[in-house]
Amino acid sequence: MIPRPFHKSPKASPRRGGVPLWMPIALVVLLVGFGAILLERSATRRGVALVDLTRYRLHHGDRWFSPDWRDELEDLLLRGGSLLATDLDARETLKAEVLALPFVAAVEEGELLWPAGLTLRVRLIEPIACVRVGQEFLPVGEFSIRESPEAESPITERVVLLPGWSDVPHKVGLDFLPVLQPTPFEWEVNSPKPGELIDYSLLLSALSMVRSFREHLTEEERSLFGRVVFDVSAGTAPDGLEGGAVLYLEGKRVIVFGDASAERGPGELPDSIKWGHALEGVLRTAEGVHWSLLDVRFDRPEYDGESGK
Fold first, then answer.
1. In the sheet where 155-161 sits, what is the strand order?
2. How far, rounded to the nearest angstrom, does the alpha carbon of residue 125 sit from its chain's CA centroid?
3. Who contacts 199 (Cβ-Cβ below 8 Å, separation ≥6)?
4. Phi, psi (degrees; rounded to nearest 5) at 36
5. Model confidence pLDDT, tens digit, residues 108-136
6. Distances (CA, A) of 199 to 7, 189, 193, 263
């Protein structure tokens, strides 16, 4: 039986509102042509399967997969046409093209499902923060690469802008991705291109706070912060001391954090204690205790707001 053709749904605009992003890093299986492969009978008799790349199925379990990412992958496959399952060079070219997509960290070939098709296993880049560009937001992810195939070669961490325009900060699982500030001025003049590697020092400093945030708090605890901005642009705290990283929370609440995680100097409290103070503050808010300013730089956190300490 020849399977019914797959009809692609109309492509959405790349800038869409309220787009949440996927659950933590996933192994996504791209199944090319499963149940939808055109095989020429003559080729099959010769033991050669012609794989039609325009007919495919994506498997990613219950993990969310961005519609923007789906669109880019569909475009790639539609351009690819078809390949012979026995053509190793063509299969390597397909893997390289998928790997070149800005949201893909690694591609491994799965197996030939003779005569049904072939599989590719794709590891995605995990979004852990987002940046504001104009009135919209783009996700930011990081991934590790090995500079050369040799086992002893160093592993390099890269930070990259990912596709996925949204008019609100992206949500992953229970919590919103933190918004990083400041962004480079040139992004406001010329919209950045997803896939660009980030090397802006202040943005990387803010990202170091996100890593610490994720290390010391659980997903449930992070969700209590709601939509939060990590801003390292001030340089000095409100009292004039060095280390002016702050968190802006909903309800006009501000948490004075001190040095960013990547720049913690002598005398600064460990991040684990600071995040404990910050969590205490958001728990108080959940209990109905109102505050507008929380300073987590000291052994005893200092509150200043409607209800005081």
1. 155-161, 136-146, 126-133, 179-181, 229-231, 245-249, 253-258, 293-295, 302-304
2. 6
3. none
4. -145, 40
5. 877 777 665 778 888 888 899 999 988 89
6. 41, 18, 14, 16
Which tens digit of pLDDT belongs to each residue from 253-266?
Answer: 999 999 988 887 77
Give the phi and the psi of residue 256 in degrees, each rounded to 5. -85, 115
- Cα separation of 143 and 5, whole Å? 36
Strands 171-172 and 253-258: unpaired
Question: Helix or strand or coil: residue 110?
Answer: strand
Separation between Cα atoms, residue 45 and residue 128, nearest integer Å: 50
Cα–Cα distance, 273 to 172 (Å, whole number): 25
β-pairing, 117-124 vs 126-133, is unpaired
Locate the domains of the chain by residue range. 27-124, 127-304
Distance from C-alpha of 96 to C-alpha of 138, rounded to nearest angstrom? 25
Ranges of residues in the chain with a pLDDT under 70 are: 1-48, 60-64, 114-116, 145-156, 305-309
Q: Is 86 exposed, middle or buried (0-12, 13-18, 19+ CB in 10 A)?
A: middle
Q: What percent of the chain has pLDDT over 70?
A: 76
Under DSSP, the state recorded for 197 is: B
pTM: 0.77
Six token digits for residue 196: 């660009």
Which region holds residue 33: left if phi is over 0, alpha if psi is between -120 and 50, else beta? Answer: left
Radius of gyration of the chain (CA): 24
Q: Which helix (H) or strand (E) holds 17?
A: none
The CA distance from 110 to 32, in Å, is 11
Rounded to the nearest 10 degrees, what angle do helices 201-216 and 271-286 cross at?
A: 70
- Which pLDDT does position 79 carry in this prediction? 87
Q: In this structure, what token pair is assigned to residue 86?
A: 């026995």
* Whole-Å CA distances, 17 to 9, 162, 189, 229: 19, 16, 22, 19
Cα gap 40→51, rounded to integer Å: 10
Q: Can you give the pLDDT at residue 10? A: 41
The pLDDT assigned to 152 comes to 60
